[in-house]
C-alpha cells in the first residue's frame, strides 16, 4: 500500500513543474506550462506587461517550457500590452486555462470596433498564409453557430475561435460533399472512394498534382488533359492553368476532390526572418516536432540586409495541418513571416 501511494505521488509530481522566481518563491504549474504561463501565475499585471523571459540567466522565447528547478525571470515593460496571438492554441504561448482567460478578459474590455478590426486582420492574415482567394465570408459564421460576420470577427479577436478552426472549416466548406444518389444517366457518375481526385465521367485516368500551384483538399480545382501524363490538377485560380485553358479549352476537364483517406500533398512554403545563429535549426525543429515530412529545403541570406529566406517543400494532409504549422513557424524568434507559396 505504501509503494502504491509513493507511485501515485510520483505520478502527480511528474505532471507538475516547480519553478523559482528570482526572489526564491516557488511557483507550481502544469508540466507543459510556458514562461508566459509563469508570468501570469506570478501576477496578472506581470503577464500583461511581459516582454521577454530568462531561464537560469539565458533569454528564451515566451513559448519556452521550463523544467522543475529552473529559475525564471520575467522581463516587463511599463504598460500592459498583451498580444492576441498569445491566446492562439497554434502559437503555443499559453497552455493554462487561467492565463488564457486573463488575456481574453483584457481584450474584452477594449472597444468593439478594435476587436472587429483585429478579427478581420487575423482572418486576412490566415487567408494570406494559406494562399486562399475569393472566400465567401458570409458562409463562415453559421459553421461556428454564430449569426453574423461581425460575431465571427470578435470571436477571432478574443480567441474563442482560432485560425486553425477557420482552416478546418474552410476545408470542410470548400471541398464538395459526396453527391446524393441520382437516376441513371448516359454519363458515368463521378467515382467516390479511395482516389484523391475524382474526374467527372472518367474512370482509371492518371492524375498529377500540378507543381505550379500545388492544390490542397479544399482548394477549388480544375483539370487539364496533358500529353502522356494524364490529367494535371490545378487550383482554379492558377495563372498557369488559365494560360493552358486559353490555349486549348477543349482539354479542360471537370474534377473534384475525392474521398481518399490518409492522402498527403507536397506544398511549398517560404519562411522569412532576420538571420541569427540557430534560426535554420529552430525552424526545421518546428517542422519535425509537428510530425510533418520535410521533402526539400533551400535557404539564402542577404548580406546587405541580414534577411534570410528559407524555402521548404513539406508534405501535409489538409488546411488545418498546414495552418497549425504556419502558426508555429511564425512564433519562432526572428521570423517575420511564414506562408504558403501562392
List the SSEs and their pairings:
Layout lengths: L1 H13 L1 E5 L5 E5 L4 H8 L1 H5 L1 E6 L2 E3 L11 E5 L20 H12 L3 H19 L18 H10 L4 H12 L22 E3 L7 E3 L11 E5 L5 E5 L3 H9 L4 E2 L1 E3 L7 E10 L4 H11 L3 E10 L4 E10 L2 H12 L4 E6 L2
Parallel strand pairs: 7-9
Antiparallel strand pairs: 1-2, 3-4, 3-5, 6-11, 8-9, 8-10, 12-14, 12-15, 13-14
Helix pairs in contact: 5-6, 7-10
Give a description of the structure:
With 342 residues, the chain is an alpha+beta fold. The protein has helices spanning 2-14, 35-42, 44-48, 97-108, 112-130, 149-158, 163-174, 239-247, 279-289, 319-330, and strands at 16-20, 26-30, 50-55, 58-60, 72-76, 197-199, 207-209, 221-225, 231-235, 252-253, 255-257, 265-274, 293-302, 307-316, 335-340. The protein is globular. Mean pLDDT is 80; it is low at 176-194. A four-stranded mixed beta sheet has the order 7-9-8-10, with helices on one face. Strands 13-14-12-15 form a four-stranded antiparallel beta sheet. The chain has four domains: 2-106, Ubiquitin-like (UB roll) (Roll); 112-174, no CATH class; 197-257, no CATH class; 265-340, Alpha-Beta Plaits.
